[in-house]
User: What shape does this take?
Amino acid sequence: MTRPGFLLICAFVLLASSFASAAVVEHTFTVQNLTVTRLCNQRVITAVNNKLPGPTLDVHEGDTVVVHVINNSPYNLTIHWHGIFQKLSAWADGPSMVTQCPILPGNQYTYKFQIIDQEGTLWWHAHSSWLRATVYGALIIRPKTGQSYPFTKPYKEVPIVLGEWWDANVVDVENEALATGAAPNNSNAYTINGLPGDLYNCSQNQTYTLNVKQGNVYLLRIINAALNNQLFFKIANHNMTVVAVDASYTNPYVTDVVVIAPGQTVDVLLRADQPVGSYYMAATPYASAAGASFDTTTRGIIVYDGAASTATPQMPALPAFNDTPMAHKFYTNITGLLGGPNWVPVPTKVDKRMFVTIGLALEACPENTACKFSISGTSINDTKFSASMNNASFEFPTTLSMLQAFFFNVPGIYTTDFPSRPPLKFDYTNSNLSFDTSLLFAPKSTKVTRLQYNTTVELVFQDTSLIGVENHPIHIHGFNFHVLAQGFGNYDPSKHQKLFNLVNPQIRSTIAVPVGGWAVVRFTANNPGVWLTHCHLDEHISVGMATAFVVENGPTPSTTLPPPPADLPQC
Assistant: This one.
């Protein structure tokens, strides 16, 4: 046989092997009302397949995922597959009025996408109003068949989904805040895999339990599905080894505490190496905003085989709710696994640099309405709580999705004049400017940044002290990014560029921008579509802390967004 013929046969064998290892994973999500009892009260929630959390999607890299979403709830609804690249499948990304109009009550839509160059822990959630408080679940991507993890195979893998619970209808909580102008009410509890744990009223029998065998290693896939708070997570007397964040592998990092922002995932290896007994795992808020105060903890129990059923579990010592040094230590000690599966080197040539301020703001009350901004004891009449990026407070379209406007070239839905820098330069983190009314009012708009295909973007996210500094978790849809550096105060390129990690930075899709500080990220816009970029605290996205990247088609059919599916919901 000639060498070219041999090589051709080898190519066909490899291609056939690739197709053989991939599968079509199909699910049906029926979204409807579910009555549950929590904190002594019965509540009607919106849930998928009568579960809280909803079903776990378990797939392999290369699989095609097909999910039929049937909306039998009373609310408009979309589902977002958080962290999935959606290569040439932007129609399946899910944010309401960005990539699709919502699925109306009584209607359905099929999401279809392929898992490409990703493995690890992601998740899915509702992306319309505050419905993701109870509409969420894990999305686990395993290596292709025949391939292994870049760490010792665990004895068992366990999703640990951290959530947030309101003893109220969450849609009403959001609507009340939007109508009155005040910050929304805090939640009443946090949860582990849907259960609040035994520190809350009427919850002794609603505590998550994980049974382990002494000496075994467990892979905990930790997801923060809470709406409005970052969380500290600890296990009494046990260390954990971080091996991945946001479905990107890391160098092993040993820690006794995990810090995780809404939208983020952290994979840790837990070795059951303590004496036989029972140990609490616990999650408590990390709240960096000035004036915040939290005294609420959810906990579950790790029970070793052979432990006495009457034994009192040991409790971990938890950080203070405002322990920023501990949070910063965790976030900055993680590095990417250079050369690991799906590793992408840092792009060295930057085509577009952006400096984006993120912060709170005010909005004037509409005519003939009464509203009153109020937060942490400060109130201002005739104003409403708002938020912005570069002094542009994002307003979602109402008549057509942004992706449809992009694909069909429909004007008037968005504008492409999002500023690359703040319109006014000031001392961003100076607390003396927190209530300077000349800086507080951010106009409403639907401004985006248009990018040519394959543009490499460097973004500086800068927190501001307007109303108050806070740690904002910023999520970019459709892309991962390298986290080059992060720190406190105002970003100064002359001082801070020398801190850039261009060798093995962590790769994420959601970055917790430090309170009163900054973070620098870099990504390549190699996926055509409209990609929402927003704070993953729902109380902030709902009042305008968002923008979007509109990425143009590339030069070939394989870099061009296909037409929308026939069942795409219409407004």
User: Anything to note?
Assistant: The CA atoms of residues 22 and 63 lie 5 Å apart.
